[in-house]
Each structure stands twice: as structure tokens, then as C-alpha cells.
Amino acid sequence: MNKKLLQFSVLILLFFFPTISLAQGDLMIMPKRLVFDGSQRSQEINLANTGSDTAVYAISFVNYKMTESGNFEQVDSPEEGQRFAEGNLRYFPRRVTLAPNEAQTIRVQVTRTGNLEQGEYRSHMYFRAVEEQTALGQEEAQEAEGISINIKTVFGISIPIIIREGASTTQINLSDISLNTEGENPKLSLVINRSGNMSVYGNIKVDHVSPEGVTTEVGMVKGVSVYTPNTKRNFSFELRSAGEVDLSTGKLRVSYSEEIGKALATKEIPLN
Fold this sequence. Notes:
This protein is mainly β. The protein has 2 domains: about 15-165, Immunoglobulins (Immunoglobulin-like), CATH 2.60.40.10; about 170-270, Immunoglobulin-like, CATH 2.60.40. Helix content is about 0%, strand content about 55%. The strands form 7 sheets. The protein has a 5-stranded mixed beta sheet, with no helix packed on it.
């Protein structure tokens, strides 16, 4: 094991009740997603405990569907057009104990891919904190009619594991772009439309182009996905870098690009 600090934004915080939200915690994971596209049969996930206490994590698979608003809901059976990847994945170890500032590698392998149909398969690897003598997370005692109740919160993080078989037929376009200038920061809303056999994951960038042709970046959001079988995702965010431009003139250029920079869709809207 190597002792190192792995920095990035973790994806999902799961409580003991079925609520899903974004969070950061003592368990750091890199990378935040794995994609097997035929060129690799084995990849590694690096875990690091950035907390001050020893932590134990059990590792398993869960399956989610994405809503049009980008939230995740756990499902037991795939929806139409959705395929789970867990039946074609194996990993080791299935449980880890990490001392403070300690790191460990999880190896993930693809198996039994000979009969896979063309398209995409997705499951999420779930790292659940295992309670020892002291609960991991918060513990709160409540009393109701003389009965003492201990509520213990168990934390976990999940990351998507994706298998892709065959060539991608996916296409993206942007629609329903609107700008709301009320409030402290202007807010842009749009719909990302997806068609084809695979999901997309990328960055949204917004540039303001003045009447004189001067281009200024006014907004950027990284890591925006649209997972199969969804055909669209509604998305809104604030343009926090727009303070020095005049949003009543010129135009906005909105682009959705892969992480490596390839533009998947671009659209311009006039502001006057």
C-alpha cells in the first residue's frame, strides 16, 4: 500500500435511508468513473482514507436509473433500453480496512463479454462504511415516550462502471436554452438531448460574444452526464463569471464537450 492523498470530488453520499446526494467525505476515490470500451480488460480504482480514524468499507454493486433532472434512483430491474454491467464484472478485494492517510487499490476486470449485444452496460460500485464499535458518521439519541432510540448514519460512495460494446451511434444536441438575469448571478437553463446506444459525459461551457466579436467565458460546469436509456437531461446553472460582460447585447455560445475536448454539440442564442 502507498500512503498518498488522492484529491477529487466524490459522487454520491448514501444514508441508511434511500436518499442520494452529492458530498465529500473521508473516503477519496480515483478515478470517479471507469469505462471499458474494448481496449482494456482490467482497470484499477485507488481508495484513500483522508480522515483521522481507521475506516472499514464493504464493496458491492448497486444499479441506478437517472431522472431527467439528473438525480439517481436505485432500481432492481433494468428499464427498457437499460443494461446492467455487474454480471460481466469481477473485483478484488471486496472489503478494505484503511488506516488514516492509507491508500489501497481495487482491481476491476471485465468477464464473459463474448455474447454481449452492441451498446452500453452500466452498474455502480458502492463503497459502504462498515460500523464497528463506534458508528461511522453521526449518532444521535432520541427519546419518545420513555423509549431511547439510537439513530446511526452509515455513509457510502458509488461510482459508475461502464462496459461499451461496439461502435457508438450516440448524437447530442442542445435545446430550450434560456437566460434568467434576475438574482445575484444570471442563470442559464438548457436541455441536453441524447440519441443512440451509449451515454455521454462531458463539460458545459458558455461564452459571451460581444457585438465587436470579443469572446469571454462566462460559465463552465464539468462532469455532466446523460446515461442510457435517457433521451434528455434538464440542466441549470449560474454564470458566475458574467459580471464583466453586458448580457443585453451580443450572443451566448453554449457548447457541450467531452472531457478530452471534442465538441459534441454547440448552439448560439442572440441576447438582443
